[in-house]
Amino acid sequence: MAAEQTVLQFFPSSASLSARVHPLVVFNICDCYVRRPDQAERVIGTLLGSVSADGTVDIRNSYAVPHNESSDQVALDIEYHHNMLLSHQKVNPKEVIVGWYSTGFGLTGGSALIHDFYASEVTNPIHLTVDTGFNSGEASIKAYVSINLSLGDQPLAAQFHEIPLDLRMVEAERVGYDILKTPVVDKLPSDLEGMEASVQRLLALIDDVYKYVDDVVEGRVEPDNNVGRSISDSLALVPKMSPATFDKLLNDRLQDHLLLLYLSSLTRTQLTIAEKLNTAAQIL
C-alpha cells in the first residue's frame, strides 16, 4: 500500500506534457537491449523520474521488465516490476513511475496493452521508444502519450500522440551519445578527438548565432524575444578577456590534459610490466 501511495501523483493534461530525458536512461536502455534474451525481439521497461508543475516529465532512471510477447498478446512480469520499483525507491525515494519504454521503431499492436497497465499505475504515463535497429539511419528517440477515443460513453481505441522531447547532456556525454546513435563506428575517439569535436560543435553554434543576429538586424527574420534573452544570458556568462588571454588559457588546459594522458599511459605501462614480471617469476 505504501508503494502505491508513493507512485501515484498528479499529472497535468496530456496536451501540456513534454519530456526531458537524461543520457543515463538511453544508455541503460541500449545496454538492456544488448543483454536481452536471444529469443526476444525488443526490450520493455519502466521509466522513473518526476513531473514538474509546468508539465515537464523529467525521466532520470529506468529498468527493464521481463516479458513474453506474441502477435496478439503481451505478458509482463508484474511481480518483478514491483520488486524493482521498491528497490529503486529505497535508494531514490523521490523517483516515481512516469511511464515505460520499448526498443524498436515506432509503435506496435501490443503497445496499447502495455500502456493500459502503466496507466493503472500512474496517470498519463509517457511511452518512450528507442530505435535500436537504426531503421531511420540513427538511433532516434521519441516520446508519446495516449489519448482515449470514445463514441458517447463507449470507448473505441487508444491513440498515441508524439510530445516534445528534450535530450540534454554535457559535452562528455554527447561524445558518447554521438557514437552510440551511429550504426557503424570505426574506433572510439580519444580524449583529444573528443575535445576537437566539442570545439568544432561550439564553433558551428557560434556561426549559427552570428547568422541569426545578422538576419534579424537586416530584417530577413522576425526577432524572437526568447532567443534574444538566451543569447544575452549566454554572453553575460562569458568572461571579458582578450584573445591572447583566451588562447593562453586554452593552451594551458590542453597542456594539463596532455600531461594527464601521459601519466595515465605511463602508469598503465608500469602495471603491464609488473604483471609480466610477476608471471615470469611464478613460472621460474
Shape: flat
Based on CA atoms alone, the radius of gyration comes out at 25 Å
Output the number of helix runs: 8
Mean pLDDT: 79
Subcellular location: Cytoplasm
Keywords: Cytoplasm, Initiation factor, Protein biosynthesis
Protein name: Eukaryotic translation initiation factor 3 subunit F
GO molecular function, one term: metallopeptidase activity
Describe this protein's structure.
The protein has 284 residues and is an alpha/beta fold. The protein is 47% helix and 23% strand. It has eight helices and ten strands. The protein has helices spanning 2-7, 23-34, 78-91, 111-121, 171-180, 191-217, 225-237, 243-283, and strands at residues 18-21, 44-51, 56-64, 67-69, 74-76, 96-103, 126-130, 141-151, 154-163, 165-167. Strands 9-8-7-6-2-3-1-10 form an eight-stranded mixed sheet. Residues 19-150 form the MPN domain. It is found in: Cytoplasm. GO terms for molecular function: metallopeptidase activity; translation initiation factor activity; translation initiation factor binding.
Keywords:
284 residues; alpha/beta; eight-stranded mixed beta sheet; 8 helices; 10 strands; 47% helix; disordered N terminus
List the helices and strands and how they pair.
Layout lengths: L1 H6 L10 E4 L1 H12 L9 E8 L4 E9 L2 E3 L4 E3 L1 H14 L4 E8 L7 H11 L4 E5 L10 E11 L2 E10 L1 E3 L3 H10 L10 H27 L7 H13 L5 H41 L1
Parallel strand pairs: 1-3, 1-10, 6-7
Antiparallel strand pairs: 2-3, 2-6, 4-5, 7-8, 8-9
